[in-house]
Amino acid sequence: VRIDVFFGPSTLTPVDVQERVVVVIDVFRASTTITVAIANGARRVIPYDSAEAAIAAAKTLASEGIVLAGERRMFRIDGFDLGNSPAEFTAQMVRGKSVILTTTNGTGALVAAAGAREVLVGAFVNFSAVLRRLRVVAEEGADVSIVCAGRDRQFSLEDAVCAGGFVRGLARCQTAVELNDAALAARRLQRSYRHEVGRLRADAGHGRALTAAGFGGDLTLCTTLDAYPVVPVYAERQVTRQPATLDPTPPPRARSR
Amino acid sequence: VRIDVFFGPSTLTPVDVQERVVVVIDVFRASTTITVAIANGARRVIPYDSAEAAIAAAKTLASEGIVLAGERRMFRIDGFDLGNSPAEFTAQMVRGKSVILTTTNGTGALVAAAGAREVLVGAFVNFSAVLRRLRVVAEEGADVSIVCAGRDRQFSLEDAVCAGGFVRGLARCQTAVELNDAALAARRLQRSYRHEVGRLRADAGHGRALTAAGFGGDLTLCTTLDAYPVVPVYAERQVTRQPATLDPTPPPRARSR
User: Fold this and answer.
1) Per-residue pLDDT tens for A162-199?
2) Taking CB atoms and an 8 Å limit, are B11 and A155 in contact across chains?
3) Which residues of B touch A185 (CB under 8 A)?
4) Which of B154, B181, B205 sits opposite A156 (nearest CB)?
5) I want to staple A107 with a disulfide (CB 3.0 to 4.6 A). Which of A47, A166, B223, B257 is the partner?
6) Which residues pair with B238 in a beta bridge?
7) Quick one: CA torsion of B178, A29, A222, A84, rounded to 10 degrees?
8) Count of alpha carbons within 13 Å of B43, Cβ hemisphere only?
9) How do residues B35-47 score in pLDDT, each as one tens digit?
10) ipTM of the assembly?
């Protein structure tokens, strides 16, 4: 089994996703936000590249109950229901609804994964749930690509450490595993941060920027391991919850804040 | 002082090099080869993107004594004097000559650094010499960008670890230093490999590929710290030795093999 990590979607080529299971990671904050929305009962999350496309989709789907969400330069887009703070995506706000989401970095990574056998959304908040799914697919012989969204096309530390956790968890229970250089590096970074994941809030440039912009509370949630144990799956341009047959864990209650 | 690391030249934007001192790293093997050639007395090394351009330059410069060198898929290009094995660049072969060099990854990184205040070629073999120069420029207040050539646009472990050494060495003697995420990660990776740099030969994908292709001997040289203590400087499309006024270290003798 191959396990490859990519530190940004721009380094990804079609051969890196074809017939593979892909995990897309944008810890601060899109993949955390998507996970919380799905855990809190959103029917689906539909990611869009541009605010314009998101607004157009909101008009088309208005009849079915939608939440229009997204950020630019970290702040909620004017006129949108929500920004990109995961704690805003409460059950009261999203249950049964379609969440239309546009963010700076996370959306592009999902689109870059198009053509994969299966695309999962991973973060610290659903780490163990996603790892369980990855172990099943690796058991079946599927190669795994872990794609860090990064920040403005640059390497981002929090995504790399999260990716390294998946590499470590997967490599541990596979006998013959091949890792690319980024997977080896991510695993060592994860080891280096394993007792201090919270420190990523201050170390990572994106963490410092979010804190300075008043979103420090988001970072605490984003670095809380396994707070929302669901597996969001991206297929046909939308993210939904992994079918219950594959995901026996009930959604957590009273998690919305 | 800012110290930024870039894990591939494709993530570099002009603002990341302007008015900065840039170190370009391609440990396996171009930056090692360039360093060895300069240490062994080559008058200059002129990098070219394409074999065609290198051949054209060789014809133009034939009268002044040239060595035509380069690789594709790791092997010497047909008809070239040398490949990209640093040990081939002996004093006997290169002293006083212009080395025309085309390699798969290293050349692009040098070109991407165009417009910088100063561009240095760094590797393990000249690590301390380059670090000394970086400390001087950081003392003067210049920001530093460390550009890993990577491999086929992907992250490469050996370049990242070497970059991390420069970050550690620089950050240690600066009071106020700002690091981007890649610099923080590189520093942690360097720490993780500090007692086992030789292990990069087997861990790094490029190392395994070179060993499989019969270039294992190159890797030993490429991971030998400070074997060739010179500072190659890239300016006006050619690499030359840093002027003696700035570089008091005499060239090593009897190093060529």
Assistant:
1) 999 999 999 887 678 999 999 999 999 999 999 899 99
2) yes
3) 155, 157, 160, 185, 189
4) B181
5) A47
6) B235
7) 120
8) 9
9) 999 999 999 999 9
10) 0.91
